[in-house]
Amino acid sequence: VVAAGDAVSRVTAAGIVPSALELLDRHCLKAVDEWKNMGLSADADAILLGRVDTPGAAGDAEAEAVRACFAEAGAAWAEVSTDQAEADALFQARRLAYPALERLGPVLTEDVVVPRSRVPQMLARVEEIAGEHDVLIANIAHAGDGNLHPLIITEPGDDAARARAQLAFEDILDAAISFGGTVTGEHGVGLLKMGGMGREVGPVNLAMQRAVKAALDPHGILNPGKVVTSGAPLSG
């Protein structure tokens, strides 16, 4: 999976902006295969799927450049698809990954973003965190945006694993911040990432946001009780 992250960095360094660059790790591939028997996990530790929309010869050249980046990063197999059905099947595996993993147990869905050049380091750190806390973490990524979705899966009813998963969750947030990233790219802060948001933006930024919130909502009636310090609520 780290080599797949390296391929993402190479695509970025080459100045290519694919319309899609999606990553699935071995845990995702295994879960999809066990559910749908697509034959994806026999030889692969990760799959990286790229798509370009540039028409004509320029698009062909761009696709070949992406393929070359994959090969240079150490891909065991890297090809430009000429079969629409094959391409659609591979992207279907990406769409099936979430429900396939949910069949294994409760999933704590993470969402962090790092600079694209730091994707390999972030993926490596997620694997370290999984080992440190003895939890299963499957990785799905909109890798071309640096938007990673480490999914922490626990056994149903295993409270100790859920506690370890929460610790892993916080470590993933801290890792993203340390690599110059952010605690969320798509899913928002919500309730789970209040601590991570505070660690990312710091007290001065939070104070500014609280001041804006107080000016617009002096009675604290809009989405109350989310991020609270010294009695000053901030919408989550």
Describe the structure.
- With 236 residues, the chain is an alpha+beta fold.
- The chain folds into 2 domains: 177 residues, FAD-linked oxidases, C-terminal domain (Vanillyl-alcohol Oxidase, Chain A, domain 3, 3-Layer(aba) Sandwich), CATH 3.40.462; 32 residues.
- It contains 7 helices and 8 strands; from the N terminus they run H-E-H-E-H-H-E-E-H-E-E-H-H-E-E.
- The strands form 2 sheets. Strands 1, 2, 3, 4, 5 and 6 form a 6-stranded antiparallel beta sheet that branches. Strands 7-8 form a two-stranded antiparallel sheet.
- Strand 5 and strand 6 form a beta hairpin.
- Helix 1 crosses helix 3 and helix 1 packs antiparallel against helix 5.
- The longest helix has 23 residues.
- The radius of gyration is 20 Å and the shape is globular.
Q: Can you tag this structure with a few keywords?
A:
alpha+beta; 7 helices; 16% strand; 2 domains; 50% helix; globular; 236 residues; two-stranded antiparallel sheet; disordered C terminus; Vanillyl-alcohol Oxidase, Chain A, domain 3
